[in-house]
Amino acid sequence: MFFPEGQVRVFLYGQPVNMRLSFDGLYALAKHVMHQDPLSGNLFAFINRRATQIRVLYFDRSGLCVWAKRLEQGRFVSNWANVASREMDWTGLKLLLEGIEPKQVRKRYKKPVVGIQNAPVPAAKTL
Q: What Pfam families does the entry give (predicted)?
C-alpha cells in the first residue's frame, strides 16, 4: 500500500524519463543523477516526456516499491521548460498527482478608491 508519512521528503526529477525504467533504472537516476539515497525512505517522482505518466520510487523498509499513475486526459506538467529537479513536500506531490502544478502564488490586492460612492443608476424612461 502507498501510505507515506507526513514528514517524508519528495524529490521531483526535472527531466522527462523513459517509463520503461523500473526499479533499477529509477534507483540509478535517484542515486547518481539526483545525488540522493533511494534507501532513505524518501519519495522520488519521475514523469514521462508527454507528462501523462508518473512513477514514484520509494523504500518501505523491506524493499523498493514503484507506484505508477497514468492520466487518461490532461498532463502532470504543462511545460517542461518550467520544471526543475527540486524537493517538495507530501502536499505538493498530492497536488501534482491531482493535476495541479504547485506554483508560487502571488496575492494582488486592489487599493480601494476613497471618496467615490456607488451612485444609484437612474431609471430608464418609458415612452
A: TnpB_IS66 (PF05717)
Contact 64, 57 (CB under 8 A): yes
Taking CB atoms within 8 Å and a gap of at least 24, the contacts of 17-26 are 17/46, 17/47, 17/48, 17/55, 18/48, 19/48, 19/53, 19/55, 19/68, 21/46, 21/55, 22/66, 23/57, 23/64, 23/66, 26/55, 26/57, 26/66
pTM: 0.72
Range with the poorest average pLDDT among 32-41, 57-66, 79-88, 89-98: 79-88
Task: Report d(CA 30, CA 47) in Å as an integer.
Answer: 13
